[in-house]
Write a sequence for this structure.
């Protein structure tokens, strides 16, 4: 599947924004399905598997944050989600990442920026990593060629951002990677240091036996993070 054949689910309660973005994304080669709110989107997800969802945060009845959390806990743990919101403060962005979003774009925005973000997110889910051979992390194993994390409980589902983060760390095991370099690997703004911290926390919950006492994904104060394979 090429990026321009990707299917996007666009969820926004503002009809004007839905219409404008539907037209713009369609003109740029994407297949687009629209939904007016979380309930509408949830119904559509029963019958389709989009490649990516663009989701407004400020919606009636169920916010985009609450909807993202429910999707991560239930039917769409790996669906790439890009949140749109008029709230652009750092704490609002962090709340979005903590809810499980892969990226976050504040309103108003240039549609060209949205297009770049969408294509970057799709690259994370379709491009193979450069690391060679599985990496053993205790009883877990990460295969960078297959983009799979396996534990004794079975295959672990990672979001696109979590997968890109683990792949970047696994490509340079035992090497300290700065938050800035990891942000670039995730196609995030270099200033998104706190967002990287959030993604590390989410990844540890899936990777580490005890996320509070990490064995493999370590913090190096003032420098960044390092992945230390081992048994």
């Amino acid at each position: 599947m090429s990026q321009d054949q990707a299917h996007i689910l666009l969820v926004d309660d503002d009809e004007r924004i839905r219409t404008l973005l539907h037209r713009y994304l369609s003109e740029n080669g994407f297949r687009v399905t629209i939904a007016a709110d979380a309930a509408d989107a949830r119904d559509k997800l029963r019958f389709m598997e989009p490649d990516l969802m663009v989701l407004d945060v400020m919606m009636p009845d169920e916010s985009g944050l609450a909807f993202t959390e429910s999707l991560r806990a239930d039917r769409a743990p790996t669906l790439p989600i890009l949140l749109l919101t008029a709230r652009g403060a750092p704490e609002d962005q962090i709340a979005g990442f903590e809810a499980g979003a892969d990226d976050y774009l504040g309103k108003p925005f240039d549609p060209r920026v949205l297009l770049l973000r969408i294509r970057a997110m799709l690259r994370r889910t379709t491009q193979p990593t450069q690391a060679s051979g599985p990496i053993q992390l205790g009883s877990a194993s990460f295969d960078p060629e297959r983009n799979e994390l396996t534990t004794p409980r079975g295959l672990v589902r990672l979001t696109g951002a979590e997968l890109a983060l683990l792949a970047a760390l696994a490509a340079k095991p035992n090497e300290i990677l700065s938050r800035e370099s990891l942000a670039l690997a995730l196609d995030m703004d270099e200033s998104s240091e706190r967002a990287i911290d959030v993604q590390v926390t989410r990844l540890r919950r899936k990777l580490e036996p005890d996320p509070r006492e990490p064995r493999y994904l370590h913090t190096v104060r003032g420098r960044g993070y390092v992945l230390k394979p081992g048994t």
Observations:
- The mean pLDDT is 86.
